[in-house]
Recover the amino acids of this structure.
C-alpha cells in the first residue's frame, strides 16, 4: 500500500506567467483617469449641490448633501417652466437633424457616386465653409429671418442650425458612401433600380452607422447652441433650454440650488442618451475608414 502511494504521480502545476506591465501603458491610464475625473467631478458637484439650499451651496459647496431634498427640482418646474423649454429644444433639435440628414444625405450621395465637372471645386468650397466662424454670419442671417418673418419662431433656429451643420454632414456621409463597393451599385442597376431607389434601398441602409453618428453630433450641437438661441429666438414661448439657463443666472442669480437643479435637468438626460448610443458614434466614424 505504501509502495503504491509512493509510485503515484505527483501533480504538477505550471507556473503562471506574470503579465508584463509597460511603463507607457501605466502613464496612459493615469493620464486618461485624471482627464476623466476633470469631467466627472464637476458633473457630480452640480448634481450634489442641486439637493442643497442656496445658503448651503454658498457656505459649503464641496460637502455631500445631507438628504435628497427635491425642493429645487420642484421649483424648476413651477417657477421657470422648464418642461416648455425642453419641448422647444427637442422640436428645434430634431427638426434640424431631420433636415440635415435629408439634404445632407442626398448631396453626399451625389458627391460620392457621381462624376461631374466642378466636383473638386465644390469639395473645396465645402471644406472652406468650415473655416468661417458662426459670428461672421449673424448679421446677414438675422436680416434674412426678419424679411421672412421667422424671428422668434421654431424655423428661426432650425434653418440657421441646418445651414451651419449641413457641410459637416455632407463631408462625413460622402466619405463613408465613397467606400461602398461599386459592385453593389452595378447589381442594383441590373435589378432595375433608378438613382433614387438605389439611394433609398442600397446606400441608405448600408450607411446607417454614419447617418446615426452624424445625427448625434448635429443634435448635440443644436441642443447646446446658446449664441444663436439668444439672438434668433429670445421669446419665452419658443425659448430653448440653454437660453432658459441664461435667464436663471440673471433672474435668480443668488439661488444657486435652483441653478444647479436646472443644469442637472439639462445635462443628465443628454448624457444618459449619449451613453446608450455612443457605439453608433464609434462605428460610424471608424467603419468607413477601414472599409473596402
Amino acid at each position: 500500500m505504501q509502495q503504491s502511494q509512493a509510485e503515484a504521480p505527483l501533480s504538477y502545476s505550471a507556473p503562471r506567467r506574470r503579465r508584463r506591465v509597460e511603463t507607457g501603458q501605466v502613464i496612459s491610464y493615469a493620464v486618461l483617469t485624471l482627464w476623466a475625473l476633470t469631467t466627472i467631478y464637476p458633473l457630480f458637484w452640480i448634481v450634489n449641490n442641486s439637493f442643497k439650499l442656496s445658503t448651503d451651496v454658498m457656505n459649503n459647496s464641496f460637502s455631500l448633501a445631507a438628504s435628497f431634498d427635491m425642493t429645487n427640482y420642484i421649483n424648476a418646474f413651477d417657477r421657470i417652466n422648464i418642461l416648455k423649454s425642453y419641448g422647444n429644444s427637442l422640436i428645434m433639435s430634431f427638426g434640424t437633424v431631420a433636415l440635415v440628414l435629408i439634404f445632407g444625405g442626398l448631396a453626399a450621395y451625389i458627391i460620392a457616386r457621381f462624376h461631374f465637372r466642378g466636383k473638386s471645386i465644390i469639395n473645396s468650397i465645402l471644406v472652406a465653409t468650415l473655416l468661417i466662424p458662426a459670428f461672421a454670419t449673424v448679421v446677414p442671417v438675422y436680416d434674412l429671418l426678419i424679411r421672412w418673418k421667422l424671428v422668434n419662431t421654431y424655423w428661426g433656429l432650425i434653418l440657421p442650425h441646418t445651414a451651419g451643420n449641413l457641410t459637416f454632414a455632407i463631408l462625413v456621409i460622402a466619405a463613408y458612401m465613397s467606400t461602398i463597393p461599386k459592385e453593389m451599385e452595378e447589381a442594383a442597376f441590373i435589378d432595375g433600380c433608378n438613382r433614387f431607389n438605389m439611394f433609398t434601398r442600397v446606400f441608405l441602409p448600408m450607411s446607417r452607422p454614419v447617418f446615426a453618428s452624424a445625427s448625434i453630433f448635429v443634435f448635440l450641437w443644436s441642443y447646446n447652441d446658446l449664441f444663436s438661441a439668444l439672438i434668433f429666438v429670445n421669446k419665452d414661448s419658443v425659448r430653448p433650454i440653454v437660453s432658459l439657463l441664461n435667464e436663471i443666472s440673471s433672474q435668480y442669480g443668488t439661488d444657486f440650488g435652483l441653478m444647479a437643479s436646472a443644469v442637472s435637468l439639462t445635462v443628465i438626460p443628454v448624457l444618459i442618451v449619449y451613453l446608450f448610443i455612443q457605439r453608433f458614434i464609434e462605428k460610424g466614424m471608424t467603419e468607413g475608414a477601414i472599409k473596402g
